[in-house]
Amino acid sequence: MEYSCPINKVASFECGSMQLGMLTKELNRMSLLSPRPKAPFAQLSFKGVCNLVGTIQSSSWTNKHQANHFNAGQSCNLKNTVTIPVTNAVAAVKGLNLQEIKQNILWEQMNVAGFLKKN
Q: Is 102 contained in some domain?
């Protein structure tokens, strides 16, 4: 997918290049780039990676198309570019609900007890 700068389409190449460079440096800082994590990912969890994303740093830069481009708006910075999709992914993840599991176990136990009484 080709990156398109949400603030200034003319600056898409420069903006995308800066964000890719910052992302590469940040992934390296988090030890997620090199060496690449290997399965079974014992030291990584979805929540842990999401928390790491929250620590991503984004810097300001100036280009010929717009002064102080990264501070020009909320949507054109690495933190927002990465954080928004991660926030959406977190919202979409459906995990185990401990309360539902407990209720299902209790329901199964009651069914078994009722079955045993009948027989």
A: yes
